Records
---
Amino acid sequence: MAGFQSAAQVQRVRAEAARPWLSPINRRRWQNFKANRRGYWSLWIFLGLFVLSLFAEFIANDKPIIASYKGELLFPVVVDYPEEKFGGFLAVTDYRDPFIQEEIEANGWMIWPPIRYSYRTVNSEIPEAAPAKPSWLYTKEERCSRYPLGVDDPNCTMGNWNWLGTDDQARDVLARVIYGFRISVLFGLVLTAASAVIGVSAGAVQGYFGGWTDLIFQRFIEIWSSIPVLYLILIIAAVLPPGFWILLGIMLLFSWVAFVGVVRAEFLRARNFEYVAAARALGVPNRTIMFRHLLPNAMVATLTFLPFILNGSITTLTSLDFLGFGLPPGSPSLGELLRQGQRNLNAPWLGITGFLTLSVMLSLLIFIGEAVRDAFDPRKTFR
Amino acid sequence: MTSPLLSIRNLSVAFTQGDRETLAVDRVSFDIRPGETVALVGESGSGKSVTALSVLKLLPYPAASHPSGEILYGGRDLLAADENHLRRVRGNEISMIFQEPMTSLNPLHTLEKQVGEVLKVHRGMSDRAARERTLELLKQVGIREAEKRLGAFPHQLSGGQRQRVMIAMALANEPKLLIADEPTTALDVTVQAQILELLARLKREQNLSMLFITHDLGIVRKVADRVCVMTGGRIVETGATADIFSNPQHEYTRHLLAAEPKGEPPRSDPSAKKVLEGDNIKVWFPIKKGLLRRTVDHVKGVDGVDVTVRAGQTLGVVGESGSGKTTLGLALSRMIASEGEIRFRGEPINRRSFRQMRPLRREMQIVFQDPYGSLSPRMSVAEIIQEGLKIHEPGLSAEERDRQVVEVLEEVGLDPEARFRYPHEFSGGQRQRIAIARAMVLKPRFVMLDEPTSALDMSVQAQVVDLLRDLQKRHQLAYLFISHDLKVVRALANEVIVMRAGKVVEAGPADQIFHAPKTDYTKALIAAAFDIATAPTGVVSE
């Protein structure tokens, strides 16, 4: 009865030659992920913010996106035109200069991004000494008081508002937040991806081969991870010129260790699985076994870890920036914003902005992480 | 007729997963009278364990629910009872023992604490009283030198002893009903016989009622007064044990009874070509001690075994667990290091490295015990079967590989369309067929079969045995068949070696071993397997 019905049972399934692009298990995971509404929405909000910030140059910049000058179509956002093109003498055009603006407007037109400041643009028209309050806290007269033509000045528009005020060097906070968000997330992503690659490979080799390889590597990691990372970064940062890639390299030296434990444990467990033994009995080479049979097992643990590691990386970068050992001076960074907030307690918009940006970003990532964890939880069956 | 102790009326169990609801048990009714043993028999997935677990409401609620039914015990419906009442019943009046004695004991507690805790919690006994009662219980369940064992941890006990301790814990509060969920499935046949005898004795002495869940009809015949045959969540037949066995009414019962592995092994042919030979095979695991990790002694996994496997013939390797059967098989197929010469088709292979072995892997294949573990859950059936082809015949085109996969799937009795699906969509028997197909697609000459039928239901076992015999005949395969299940070995092997503690106890033609065993150990194995009879102490492990 239960016997040769097997063949018949199989027959009942239609000949599905074309397989769906998601395997059944991944489809179930996606369903579980979606079932966590908070994480699902967080993912979309985060992706939206991140994609927007990737186009930061088109949102907040001190150059017009497109300009037409004497019949020629110009793209100042992507191309640096020398000022002599517009009758000036500087090597790089300052489009915020009223003279250049009048010149272009007289011979064509230009479209500005919604925020006319880049992260390093100094706003020389703020109504009081920097840090200046958000523009909407001033009356129109106050706001335009420093422009040459006062209230009637064509530059005293919404585009030149400082929506979140300026910092103590008269730079627009909103522009710096947008650029800072981008650099933080990119830094976190690159660091996480790179440490995942290194950590997973190291863990895989240790777990798969075991024995002496494992023993020696484990002792090395114990010593390595007992080095006080933050101090070391401070020392190295004092010697090497700090920059995006240098910081990334230094932090990568230590962050890969986080993955080793999980992946190693997963490989140690799975290398004795019967299907791994079966592959070995088929004569499958070690490297193929590790990639095809073992890595997918470890991926679940790794992917679950990923959002939290990403969070950790961002936090570390922020704290280094806050201490002043992070990205070079002048770069847009959330840590630097927090530091300004701490130094200028009379300008609460700095601290509040920094705090809100960071907490929203980190919360979104944690919520996504929770949903990912749910998605990969094999025991999660209902709800 | 006495009134029933436990009465199950129209019990249904449904599981909700996502928005899908599956009915696992469908309106099941039966009674258990005082002092009676009722057996629930069925194959895996028939709903017998779920029925038993719902008696004590141990299912994962709220994923599980009871659309209908009542479970009457002592005049109260347990399904409607509150948690307080249930707690009083659980472990006190109705207790339960499970299949897996390895994991049902807390590894961090001594026996005294393990058993004593039950007494202290339910009875409020003092330490001293609990200790005395624990000792008494351990003696009752046949743990020898119980005083010395009080301080022992679970890992210091054998599987059989652990199951005895589980039974002691279950009996601690003198329950009226014991639910035994496949209590001997994870044990050796010899130990199984001992545990069953213990349960029978306890039932006699204490007038215990038992609900016994098993898939093994041999056990049912031995222990049960009445039998309920379950399939697909329903009870299809109920009756006294003798009636069911002598006069089965339902088609499914007859099918179950007829499901023993049958057929004759290949005829012995001493002139057949030797495929694999092993001389004086030794696998010793070193025991290292001290700071310098010097080897002080060895665990002799396999200790000087000679084997010859011939084309078209089957060598059966039998023995209790831990006797070194699988280790021997792995050593012969060069999956683990060993001493002694191994020749494959006349050529010594014991000095080859893993890499040098690779070309030979094609001709030496292994089929593993657990069809759930031996197929990668992330690969489709086609990918699983093709894996070996890709390595050993890298020149094949995709179409040619696909053609071979189709061919081999048909050969093992599966629909070729199955190749687009994933292992989890198949039953145990079908999976084992896929595992066999994976080995067969390479056209091997030697196949090591490591308990390939142990994880399967009885009726599926018989089919897999038929399939293996069929393939052997067609391709003149040499089998090394490792099993603790003598019934299956009898149906497949024409030569048998009996192993104990790494050594060969007895070897010879299968007929001679089964009909005229020489050693007490072999006799005990055969008695336990075919008659579920216990051997005198000391002959087999406990």
---
Amino acid sequence: MLQVEGARVQFGDYRALDGVDLALVAGETIAVLGPSGSGKTTLLRVVAGLQHLDAGRVCWGGDDLARAAPHERHFGLMFQEYALFLHRDVAGNVEFGLRMMTSDRAARARRVDEVLDLVGLDGFQSRRVASLSGGEQQRVALARALAVSPRLLMFDEPLGALDRVWRHRLLTEIRSILDRAALPALYVTHDHDEAFAVADRVAIMRAGRGVQLGEPVDVWRAPVDAWTATFLGFGPVVAAEVRDGRVHTPWGSLRSSSPLEPGAVDAIVRPDGARIDHSGAIDATIVRSTFTGTRVELAAVSGSGPALTVVVVPRDAPAVGDRVRLSIDPDALLVYPRRAD
Amino acid sequence: MNGNRGAARAVRIARVAVPVSFLALFFAWPLAAIFGRSLRASALTDVLTDPVFRRVAWFTLWQAAVSTILTVLVGLPAAYVVARFEFPGRRLFRAFVTVPFVLPTVVVSTAFLALLRPGGPLAFLHWQRGVAPLLVAHVFFNVAVVVRTVGGFWANLDPRREEAARMLGASRLRAFRSVTLPLLAPSIIAAASIVFLFTFTSFGVALLLSDPAHATLEVEIYRQAVNLFDLRTAAALALVQIVAVLAVVFALARAQERRAVAQRLVGGTESARRPRGRERIVVGGVLGVTVLFLGGPLAVLVWRSLHVGGNWSVGSFRALGSSASTTTLFVSPWAAVRNSAEFAIVATVIALVVGGLASVAIASRPGRSTRSLDAFLMLPLGTSAVTVGFGFLLAFRHLPFGFERSPLLVPIAHAVVAIPFVVRAVVPALRSIDPRLRDAATMLGASPARVWREVDLPITARAFAVAAGFCAAVSLGEFGATLFIARPDWPTVPIAIQRFLGRPGEINVNQSLAMSVILMLLTIVVVFGIERVRVRDLGEL
């Protein structure tokens, strides 16, 4: 459906997009995940046609879109902080795109009711946009984008301004609406939880380039490099050495299922990798315990290395100062060749 | 699709090309004509060395400075009361204070003449036309600038600063002098700068209320060009005037810039409260005196227009249709009213189109080129109306097809004067639009033209309405430029009033009063009427 090939965008000396490729298949949601400044919003604007490409192309079903103006592409875009029209009421916002398509008032009103019902805002038609809560405004923005039945829906950090409870609810709703409509979607976010929850595949961007594209489970299991692992919240990164098929870390000599070449490496333990195990090889002391409700995050110090994070259910949590034995799942010990950066 | 794109490019070019060529033709060329004239045959040196003209320049400077100081002194108490106290009719009072500012200079002049003339309430002062009425009229005009600028700023000053000073043992006066006044200084300077500029380039009241011995540069340019037909000298004087005004504008802008950096913005707390105890007397006194000072002359104008030979009568208005007044004017006074209304409509349309296009260009691309466009468009602000009119006279004197006699020149000159106001009103409104709103409309299928109509226009409608009201008011009251270019058989209302004032006899005085009342009402309706309607239409944005 959507193909982006070698997309490059230059702002003066700054290269916002540096040769990005992306292909979206029918009905699929791809989350574009990256820190701020990685070019993910620029990528969305390029697909939308709001940003001019310096090189590369954007195609839909094999047709180059270079000559299609943004308002002729039939793509929907939900903006960061929604960009609602404050000079129109809720219905006026949702109806906006429909007015560009048809002069049939009755049909428009029907569609507005239908979409507002879909996002759970039935009865809000004549409410003023400014009087709505953040979550409600976000739903109006979603309804406005959905009303015209776009062939592709794009989201630019749609949940950024919301609190936790709303984020969770809307994320679930967006997911179910996308599934039901079988609408292909691009979802830009800097939050990996959000990306994993909403997407079929995740594309990770760094400094204007795509670094990894894959299903959430695969990306989580095996980030492509140390930077990606750190960006996903893994850590800490320690200097280690591969010798005799084992990884010699400050916590001891460990096994890893990563492909191993002898020499200096960076080693990272995935957050789900370390666990309390009476037969474990690592002797550690609990130095900090953080209660988060459903689980407890422990910081455990062993040898000369930085503290390891161990997640346990509250019932099993040892006290600060306790000595425990830990083991590290070989699958969760990620090893990357040492790089200069 | 290609057609669309071609159209988009045409619009992009037009929004720069139209304002630039309009102002090049109707502002830069007339100015160049003045330059050309004045630089020829040592006119400039003659003027600069002539003690008569030095005296004129000195008087212009002197009366502007005194007018400014007086205006600030009269305006500050009203600014204080409006900023600090809540009282019934506060909004009405603020609107009322603005009325004199938008009134045509001829109306104000007629009102003051009505006050001072034998039979008027202030006739006992025995003031002749001269410096005193000129200064008072300047204060009358510009008090609004001080009340609005300083009052608006004052309302946002946290009163607790002053209270803190008083807790530390400062008296009320001391607290004001050492805490509030320094904080207010930038706004006072800003207001004073504007007042100085207005009074420095004062023409209408200077011509009608002052005497020939006390002429401002503007009046002298007019006298040389029209009465003595010495275009050379007039051009040299105009050049002196342009240079002086630009120097003043530049110096004041610099002074304000320096101030603005040093001054931290204070949070906008609404600090007005009801007056208590003795404050009631102060508030009441200030309000009473201000209302009397600003309302009195206008009330007397209306009152005297409704009296003929000491009795209540609408005779003055009825006489507007008589043949006697037609002889004075060459046309019927009602024709002048119609001319004024038509010119105002044409001038407003021209100014909104030209200024609107320029505003879009300035707001859409911040950068060096649009900044210079912005600066270019502001130039008419720093040029007096007399200069514009005189420039028209020089530049378009020898055009083919009788263009120099075209009545269209009048609204064009009015538009030149009004365009800076349109740009000042519309650009901030356009800049306040979140660009993502336009993107959102685009993504929903709106073409660029549709985006403009659906997003930009509704959001800036209020600014356009305010600008339109202001343009119409400028055109209705414009006097300095019109005096040079209006055809004798196409007078506007201000020109008609001036002609009536220039003739002896009670009948002519009465005609000038009646026409002034009509012009005053027209102006008040366009300025306050348009704004009122639009605000209600849109609700609060």
